[in-house]
């Protein structure tokens, strides 16, 4: 064979194996081969050999394709017609193609040209066609009607068993009768079909006779079609015997479904249209709510009539009749073909078809169930006998299953086609569910190999078993069996099944639509009666009856009611106590679906709070998780997924879960005693820092254990991703969130993130072991670099691990030395890497001003390490002892209540013992921590840092402010740590500068803080002012704790260090009080409700220590009164201000006059009283301005006599106060003259010069005035600090009295500060070099500005004497240092902290 034909062989074999293009590809190859003969490329012998190859001939139908291809080749090659005829002859002679097929497929002209047929072949063919199609047969009708058909009927109707007549005998007799009487064969065939219909017991004989009588299926199909058409015209249901006959004929192969299908009525399109109309009518009925009982009765009657009509139509549907016959005959394949043509579950909707399907499935599943099921059903199978008898009489296409593979291949598709109608046989349903449970358990062990089988099981539950459960009566055992199978699947697969059941299964299914409507109606009736009083056994029983079989739609309605009515949350959660595990699992799915609804807004349009539906659902989730065995993992994973999408509002669900289960609530409203308990050990924190009862209920303990197991599950990591995502959202909200969000909303969401993070960590700390938590938590470096957490958050998460590491190292028995020495060595070892990493987070320039040891020590320690809350320990122990006294049982009483009391007493005694041991351990830790801090304090601030203000500023920016905002306990820690630096007498540390900076930047901090941060900052201020008040109250305390310390050194001259005297310290406290007043008044007088709330929150926290003077309190009360009188003030602001007003008035007995708080200020205090009371029409801001101006003037001994201060233009060193003053648009007029404490000659010259006008000043006078100021400033260092700060502020807010224009740096107004997102941008820091020369030019410029400012407000002073000038030059260095220390930047912004 030539090479081209070899390639053709390969191509032809490939074409014949392609089932889709079998004939097309083969014809193309053969045409090319035959065309090669015409061109002379191949010979006839090659072609015949090619066609006779076994690999080609073995394909069925090849001869037909080859003959057709040869005919096409002859027709296409007319030019070589003779040559092609030779090829035809060669192929015909060789027998390569069947000769009969060649004669059939080739044209007559070709056959005659090749002499393969006679020459007159066409004439004979014409005569044959004429006889077949046009000539009519003549019968003796009179002869056949008389006797012939009578004998045929007699032969067909005899008893074949008794007469011992076989099929061969019968067909011989019938053929004899037909030939003898010349009967019509079609009518004889019709009689045979009628006999088969009437005598189905002799079906074997009739079938064999029919097979021999005719082999044309079309003839039988036409006769049966006529019968079906006649039946369709008759009223009433058709007879089932004809359908049984058709089924038997199809089983015997005498009839095919494709041949009969054109005769079936109604058509498929008519059936589908009728089903759609019926579904539409049912949907309309279930969605129509009647206004009266009469209308409802009419609707019910119309629906019943529609159901009857639909049943009649189904009974007359011939396809349904055939399907029933096939099922009864055991021919599942043919029945499945009909079911695939009709709408889903249309065939089993007919009761007869349903019964037949259930019978067949019983027969198929019984052997497998008996071998697999662990327990047998208590009652026998109702259809077992019928199935066995029917199956024995026919060869069923669905034999009995003996393995799970057979079950998955045959029974599961049949059950899926049965759909929700499996509920008609609970026994079969139970068998199927139990076998599926066994199948799932084996599939899980097999692993990934059984993925396809698990998918089939999931589809079976979604399409058949769970919809069937809806149609069951209240059947708890079936629900339990269903849950036993479903609980082995992962929750993702279960929820996928529930989703299809809830949203898809009932659509286009009239039976399920009605069941769903009845469930809603029943649920509505129950919820109308549900209250908190009757949510007991009766209501729980009624709800559980509905939830046994249809929980998905019951909970769908229930959650709608909960979203709308918050008072149903608690009663419904109580009424779910008798539900099944399946119902609880479906409830969690329904809750998640409701929470995931994208069409609902999660924020109220009128305010910035969560929508009520979200709050109600979150509360309901917390209750059901606490009370019932609901899986935590889906809900926690949902929260994680929402956080990945930056959806923070869903954290309310997690907050409610932790609150309801663990009892941890918002820590912002803690009392002082609870806050002290937060500084204790684990037991004290659990007993004393929570709002709820420390003893958890049984349900709470169970739910808490379940939640902890979910957190620590090795399979699905949830805890650490949840913590990290919440921490990341704090940064994302501020810097990466939606730019269109209001600033107030960002603050609210930020606070909620922080609250939930603290709640979650409290729960983790109390319930998860340290080893497990440390194992899952990433290292500190990874938290900061990989997950981009802030230092405060990362250290908060890592601090527990670091503390445990120190304790483990200190407890090592191989260590030598005392406990303090061991602790110090352990701390040094554990903090070495932490210090190195924290140092790498900031540029090297930072560490030239701030010690890395101070930074790492501050972030490593906690309130637990600084002090022991002995009062909190004593308080909790006293409560437990009191409980023991009240629960003391009577002697000899053995009742259940007394036994419980004894158990409580034993538990309380064990807790008391543990608390005492914990307190002793903490005291030891505090002692070691203090010793360590004392040893490290020498290296906290390096002596080379000449600019003490820079060190303090950096400490505030990098340590105090970031941490005091984190939590209430951290705010207290920051205040106590700063005081501890003072009490340890840390070298080169200025406590005075620290206090001054804290009060100087209060307004900036509050303006850029959220509400919760403002509250925490208020706690920080309260602790700071508590220390200041203790120093202020007793001179002996001041002399003991302040005077000898480096922190209260006023002059940093190494030769003559000077400390602040007690009187000067009281002046400073006076100035700090007035500064706070101006800051608070500037915010209270703003029109920003959010800023007012934040200011009041801080004022509530410091109400015990501010205000301390009557005149300041009076001004503050007037400002509060104006807020309350203002009709535009928001209601929540009024409530908060009213609360503060009440607290402030309750402490009015602690207020003292200004001359008592600052005894050195008797004159100014006498002037202030009438000034504040004589101008009733003046605003509180103006009064505060006057008060603070006078106080700052009287307390500053460096001011010369006769100097005049313009109150409105140069009165305040606080930026917010300046803004308020400028916004009042009042006249700026001189208020008073201030006198200094200089010598008598100076006072005389100053008094005479005070009368000079502005125009009489000369440059020489300007220079003398500046020298005089330097001298007076150097005289008293603490006063110099305050005066310099005040003059610096005046320089920044200097205003031209004529034009009113601000020539200094503009300060942000309170409203603009609150409207910016987190604007805490600091002004430029001082030079980090630490040398005095770096600031010398700036100092000269500031002095000039200060002099000009004073000259505008009063007359120039007289020239100083030579002695005064020399003294001024000697002290100029100290003056510059003091002024330099007060000129510091405001606190850092949140952006700079990050």
From TrEMBL:
This is THO complex subunit 2. Residues 1251-1272, 1293-1305, 1361-1383 have a biased composition (Basic and acidic residues). Residues 1384-1394 have a biased composition (Pro residues). The lineage of its organism: Eukaryota, Choanoflagellata, Craspedida, Salpingoecidae, Salpingoeca. One of its GO terms (molecular function) is mRNA binding. Signal peptide: none annotated. Keywords: Nucleus. The keyword Nucleus applies. GO terms for cellular component: THO complex part of transcription export complex. It is found in: Nucleus. Residues 543-618 form the THO complex subunitTHOC2 N-terminal domain.
